[in-house]
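Re: that backbone. Tokens:
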């Protein structure tokens, strides 16, 4: 008969097996080793994590400069360079929230807008994912030797998750892209650690302290709010993770869970209140059919899963290997472990965020477009799932095989180097420095450039910071006076602002530039993506054509670069009788600038009349000729701002035609304005006509004999 509490394997009254005493007692030596074992373990753990973080850094650094600045990165730079109020207003109209742009605003203010400087912020964020993945993987695992696998498996879960995060293709690729995707994924990882530690989803910690819990609360809320305010799709990943955490111990965690949700919502709500009305109006104007209106949601979710893993060639095979490897390893870890709610929570925390994010990407594809980059915020849970699957091998060693298969397949684009040759943001040929080179050739440092889309403005800003100016030297040293400043009129996708305030901003910027040089020699350059294909952009150019004087322009790829100057037309000459040039075209009047400083602007306004319908197309030639007969400036253009070829004139029609010319700085004497017409072959139609003389330089007058000519 057993005593109460007895054990049938041992004699009466003996509750535990007797301990064998060694013949030689090495207690002192073992006590010393045991005392320092936790320290050695912690030091080894830190060393491993530092090494893995360095591996992650070495994987990300090549991504900084492996390709030129991308189109969307220009948008990031431009928003970061705008005043905070403008940036918030435009971001409210966009599909991305403002936190990343705010961080980048501070970042580029300190480091500049070169591609290296801009991408360094994403590199820093993506490298932080490595230790955060280790911390998050362990926070979801039972500690202190309790639960299903114990501390050894918990440590391995962190290490393997850190390895997976170090080589995860999206986190490697987007470390080399100046966009919000890598920072948002890191915010999700921080939230995964903070929520697990606060809600104690891996079980209560025996040595938990109030300060440690406070840190967990702060990280959970800050990481969640930061991810949501960087990238809206982060909400789907956080929702999946939050549901998994609540399902582990709902009876004891729901109050903290609600506190986490409420605190996060409180931080995000002010922005949503500000941004949702314009965002909803913008989305309502979008096309109802997306990029793949005929595809099923399941097929688009599968495409999102492959995009999450960054696989193209062999994509279904690699993506399938990751999915099967995770399913087998995690499923086997659950099998035969009674009441392992933390293991179920890890399985849910792997699957739910991935499924919800891929579903959101699929719905977005049907509504608007398929954007593979939107799936990046699910990357942390792929890394965590691989870590948890590998740690299950501590007790069930055969499961290491599918875990290794999942890790290698998920990291294959990075391990093979394919990730460094892929462009996921912009697929068309694009030269981010083209506009800057054209402006450097045509413009002067005191000018101003206005863009109809911020992406080009950011690329121009970055090229100005890292490029060269007219004399071939780096213009950031100030030797060339710097590149022309820029402003914007956001009149192209993905955001449209009202055209009247946009024109007013451009006008104010040009007036400021004119006042800045004290003598009014600045020019305005409009860089119009796709020319005047958009009606609002056409309105901007029409304003410039009506109010200013076009001086030069050309197409730079698919962008129209056209310059304008402003100057008073204080002298008028009427031609009586009107000067006939042939083909029914006569010149009736000219107004022009009579006095300019060196390098100043000369405005010429001509009035033409068609006595008959012209048979062909003629171009107007306006020249500035010095007293020696040398042409010092010339404009050759289709009349009325390149918009009215002479063949379109009607009989009896009168047209006002404006031309601007810029004197070179070396011109220091009076110059004569002459006007003529040439046909399509370059042959003159009639003789050149003298319009008048322009005095150049301070105190320069026009001799009486010259004025009478």
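Recovered sequence:
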């Amino acid at each position: 008969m057993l005593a109460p509490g007895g054990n049938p394997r041992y004699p009466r009254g003996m509750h535990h097996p007797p301990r064998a005493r060694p013949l030689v007692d090495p207690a002192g030596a073992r006590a010393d080793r045991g005392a320092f074992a936790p320290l050695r373990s912690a030091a080894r753990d830190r060393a491993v994590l530092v090494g893995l973080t360095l591996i992650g850094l070495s994987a990300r650094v090549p991504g900084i400069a492996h390709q030129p600045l991308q189109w969307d990165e220009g948008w990031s730079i431009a928003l970061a360079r705008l005043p905070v109020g403008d940036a918030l207003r435009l971001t409210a109209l966009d599909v991305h929230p403002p936190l990343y742009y705010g961080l980048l605003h501070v970042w580029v203010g300190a480091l500049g807008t070169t591609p290296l400087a801009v991408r360094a912020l994403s590199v820093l964020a993506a490298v932080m994912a490595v230790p955060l993945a280790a911390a998050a993987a362990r926070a979801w695992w039972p500690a202190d030797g309790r639960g299903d696998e114990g501390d050894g498996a918990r440590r391995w879960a962190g290490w393997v998750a850190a390895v997976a995060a170090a080589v995860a293709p999206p986190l490697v690729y987007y470390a080399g892209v100046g966009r919000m995707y890598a920072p948002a994924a890191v915010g999700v990882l921080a939230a995964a650690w903070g929520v697990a530690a606060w809600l104690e989803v891996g079980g209560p910690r025996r040595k938990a302290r109030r300060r440690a819990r406070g840190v967990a609360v702060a990280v959970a809320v800050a990481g969640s709010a930061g991810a949501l305010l960087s990238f809206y799709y982060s909400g789907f990943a956080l929702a999946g993770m939050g549901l998994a955490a609540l399902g582990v111990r709902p009876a004891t965690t729901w109050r903290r869970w609600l506190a986490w949700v409420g605190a996060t919502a409180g931080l995000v709500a002010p922005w949503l209140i500000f941004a949702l009305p314009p965002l909803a109006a913008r989305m309502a104007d979008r096309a109802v059919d997306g990029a793949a209106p005929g595809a099923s949601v399941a097929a688009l979710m599968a495409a999102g899963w492959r995009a999450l893993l960054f696989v193209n060639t062999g994509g279904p095979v690699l993506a399938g290997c990751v999915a099967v490897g995770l399913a087998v390893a995690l499923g086997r870890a659950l099998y035969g472990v009674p009441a392992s709610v933390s293991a179920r929570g890890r399985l849910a925390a792997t699957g739910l965020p991935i499924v919800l994010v891929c579903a959101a990407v699929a719905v977005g594809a049907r509504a608007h477009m398929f954007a593979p980059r939107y799936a990046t915020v699910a990357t942390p849970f792929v890394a965590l799932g691989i870590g948890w699957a590998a740690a299950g091998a501590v007790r069930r060693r055969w499961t290491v095989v599918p875990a290794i298969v999942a890790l290698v397949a998920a990291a294959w684009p990075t391990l093979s180097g394919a990730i460094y040759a892929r462009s996921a943001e912009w697929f068309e040929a694009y030269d981010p420095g083209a506009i800057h080179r054209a402006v450097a050739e045509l413009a002067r440092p005191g000018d101003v450039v206005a863009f109809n889309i911020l992406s080009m403005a950011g690329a121009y800003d970055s090229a100005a910071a890292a490029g060269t100016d007219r004399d071939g030297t780096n213009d950031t040293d100030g030797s060339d006076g710097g590149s022309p400043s820029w402003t914007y009129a956001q009149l192209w996708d993905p955001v449209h602002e009202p055209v009247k305030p946009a024109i007013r901003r451009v006008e104010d910027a040009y007036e400021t530039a004119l006042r800045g040089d004290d003598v009014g020699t600045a020019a305005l350059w409009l860089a119009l993506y796709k020319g005047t294909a958009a009606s609002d952009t056409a309105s901007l150019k029409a304003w410039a054509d009506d109010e200013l004087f076009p001086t030069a322009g050309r197409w730079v790829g698919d962008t129209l670069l056209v310059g304008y100057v402003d100057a008073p037309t204080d002298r008028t000459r009427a031609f009586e009788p009107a000067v006939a040039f042939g083909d029914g075209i006569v010149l009736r009047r000219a107004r022009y600038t009579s006095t300019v400083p060196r390098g100043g602007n000369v405005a010429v306004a001509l009035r033409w009349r068609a006595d008959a319908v012209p048979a062909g197309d003629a171009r107007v030639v306006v020249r500035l000729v010095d007293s020696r007969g040398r042409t010092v400036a010339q404009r050759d253009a289709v009349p009325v701002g390149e918009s009215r070829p002479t063949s379109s004139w009607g009989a009896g029609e009168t047209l006002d035609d404006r031309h601007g010319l810029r004197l070179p700085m070396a011109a220091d004497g009076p110059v004569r304005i002459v006007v003529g017409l040439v046909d399509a072959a370059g042959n003159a139609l009639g003789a050149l006509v003298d319009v008048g003389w322009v005095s150049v330089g301070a105190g320069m007058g026009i001799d009486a004999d010259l004025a009478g000519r």
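The chain has a mean pLDDT of 82. The longest strand covers residues 571-582.
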